[in-house]
Amino acid sequence: MQEEPISHAGRAAGLSDLTPLIRAPRAPRHTHFVRTAVVGLCAGLLAVGFRRALALAEAEREHLLSILHGYPSWGWMVLPTIGLSVGGLVGWITIRYAPEAAGSGIPHLKGALLHVRNLEWRRLIPVKFVGGVLGIGAGLSLGREGPTVQMGAAVARALAGPLGTPPGDLPQLLSAGAGAGLAAAFNAPLAGLIFVVEELHRELSSRTAAGALIAAVCATVVAQGMAGDSPAFEAHIRSAVPLTAIPLVVIVGVLVRQRYEVLVRVARRCRLS
């Protein structure tokens, strides 16, 4: 499903709605940093659970694929059929119970930070978790970055009430949870910090940056402690590319770049039409 873009009017309204939050009373810095640490720990736990569920689902798919190799006449139809069925089921669940969980979830998070969309964590977390595991486990072209980012922000929203977070600190707490989710997903705390600063807030105040870094580090500690310090992506290369193949690599890069520009132009025309 495609996510609805946030219009310029929505951004303007959101920025004006954020004015009371910016002027609202805030907690002392050390209190805010303690809250971000708690959010980071909880977001890390959820990210680890998501990673393990994905690993289990992918292992089951690989096991099924190995069995289907023994039935070449009809086995090739099984996984595409399962993917189509699971994709339809996940789409129905998303539309029925949590439309805001569609897509990566990052545009929805930006809308929540602009105060133009709500972050309903009670329905978003289970739908995003289950839908992500089913979709990725079925072999759909999806990743865990967007789901962990949105679920991390939802964890922060869920903890905002019990932690007594004042309205003025809520946007920073949500972004810290999102960065913690990204950091735990890829064992990369600095990536979580940069994501918050460049993509969500685009400002480098000490409250925003330090809170995001604390949450990201806490989430990474949990992820590495429970899931190990393994890389997020593994590429098993048996031999290096020979020097004589470098011209072919350059040609492939140029061709891919040209095809990418064509796709971008087509997407822009479809969006304007």
Number-wise, the strands total 0
| Number of structural units classed as domains | 2
Helical stretch count? Answer: 10
User: Which structural category do the helix and sheet elements fall into?
Assistant: mainly alpha
Query: How confident overall, as mean pLDDT?
Result: 84
- Give the CA-based shape: globular
The percentage helix is over 70%
Radius of gyration: 21 Å
Biggest beta sheet summary: none
CATH domain fold name of the largest domain: Clc chloride channel
- The name of the CATH superfamily of the largest domain reads Clc chloride channel
Describe, in plain words, how this protein is organized in 3D.
With 273 residues, this protein is mostly helical. The chain has two domains: 21-236, Orthogonal Bundle (Clc chloride channel); 240-273. The protein contains ten helices and no strands. The longest helix is centred in the first third of the chain and has 40 residues, at 29-68.
Structure in a nutshell:
With 273 residues, this protein is mainly alpha-helical. It is built from 10 helices and no strands. It has 2 domains: 21-236, Clc chloride channel, CATH 1.10.3080.10; 240-273.
SSE diagram, text form:
Blueprint: H1 8-23, H2 29-68, H3 78-97, H4 106-113, H5 121-137, H6 145-160, H7 170-186, H8 189-201, H9 206-227, H10 246-272
Q: Keywords for this structure?
A:
single chain, 273 residues, mainly alpha, Clc chloride channel, 2 domains, 72% helix, globular
